[in-house]
Amino acid sequence: MIEILLILLAPIIGGFIYGFERKVRARMQNRQGPPLLQPFYDTFKLLDKQTFIVNPYHSVLGVAHFFTLWAVVAFVILGQNLLYVVFLHLLASIFLILAGFSVKSVYSHVGANRELMAMIAYEPILIMLSVGFFMLNGSFEISAIRQNSPFLLSLFLLFLAFLMVIPIKLKKSPFDATEAHQEIVGGVEVEFSGVFFEFLYMAKWLEYVFVYLLLFLFAGDSVALGLALGVGVFLLVNLVDNSTARVRIDHLIKIVLSVGLTLGVLNLIGLSYV
């Protein structure tokens, strides 16, 4: 019953995380910042906006992206197979990329290209993370992973690699080239409007929930460690976001593939000899 309630409330929880993050980021910049509920105010405002449908495929793919991400979050909450979760998340990203390519906007095409390149960089890390949990736990089932002692020390290098994935998924500097409002006006978002843009907006909230749910897996059965990791990573990501400049997409790929994959491979090799 609790799991079903969490699944239904997942977008709202993500909205609160996003609103709190904007507040924290503003304080870091010595600003007042928007209200905590500003994401929800924006959502209601979008309902009053006129909706333009560029083409049916574009709109359907945007909605499919949102509901697939919601299914991903549901699978994690219900403790399903982690490898299935990773591939379902990949499918959600593919829907977004196809939506970007389905219109004629140059900004949308550039954004979709960047999303595709970023996906090629971070998905192998998520797969290696799943394999790492399997090597320690003997199962891909998230429910089984949560019942074991913390994995943070055993998967520390993969944890560091995962820290590189988080700003990509949450569109945070220095790895926010896929959105880059100053360059490509939001990328794949540019042709969405009204209620369909609202689906894309809320999909970002689900990404927050997904990322922090994966982060909690490193804590195993330790709720205290999970909360500490969540708070620590939340502050670290926002501190880095406020103090670094965006890197080019080709540099993003090189950094994540060279550093992230190396850390992941070394961690898996180490586990194989334990």
Overall description:
This protein is mostly helical. The protein has one domain. It is 74% helix and 0% strand. The chain has helices at residues 2-28, 38-47, 56-77, 82-101, 106-137, 142-145, 156-169, 181-184, 194-217, 223-243, 249-272.
Supply the key terms.
single chain, mainly alpha, 11 helices, globular
Q: Helical region count? A: 11
The helix-strand sequence is HHHHHHHHHHH
Strand content: under 5%
Low confidence ranges: none
Straight-line N-to-C gap = 39 Å
The number of domains: 1
* Main sheet makeup: none
- Which geometry do the CA atoms define? globular
Structural class: mainly alpha
In a few lines, what is going on in this structure?
It contains 11 helices and no strands. It is mainly α. It has one domain (2-272).
Task: Please specify the SSE layout and strand pairing.
Blueprint (H helix, E strand, L loop, with lengths): L1 H27 L9 H10 L8 H22 L4 H20 L4 H32 L4 H4 L10 H14 L11 H4 L9 H24 L5 H21 L5 H24 L2
Helix pairs in contact: 1-3, 1-9, 1-10, 3-4, 3-9, 4-5, 5-7, 5-11, 7-9, 7-11, 9-10
